[in-house]
């Protein structure tokens, strides 16, 4: 009879339920974050390539060629 009483108490004990809830919630948030990152990664990579291309092909102009520093201000 003692074994059955222990099993009944074990089944009705909810002391670890909050911990399990937090673990499940945290796992869901992490999973959602990974899903979002995998979707956003392609766009961010393309944007980074566009920025790199723009910066690589840019040239620095001298102030005189822009109308500054040659007495025309």
Automatic annotation (TrEMBL):
Protein's UniProt keywords contain Membrane: yes
Residue ranges crossing the lipid bilayer per the database entry: 20-40
Keywords, ordered alphabetically: Membrane, Transmembrane, Transmembrane helix
Name under which the protein is recorded: Flp pilus assembly pilin Flp
Phylogenetic lineage: Bacteria, Pseudomonadati, Pseudomonadota, Alphaproteobacteria, Rhodobacterales
């Amino acid at each position: 009879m003692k074994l059955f009483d222990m099993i009944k108490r074990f089944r009705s004990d909810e002391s670890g339920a909050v911990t399990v809830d937090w673990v499940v919630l945290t796992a869901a948030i992490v999973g959602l974050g990974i899903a979002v990152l995998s979707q956003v990664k392609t766009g961010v990579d393309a944007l980074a390539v566009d920025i790199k291309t723009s910066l690589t092909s840019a040239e620095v102009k001298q102030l005189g060629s822009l109308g500054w520093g040659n007495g025309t201000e």
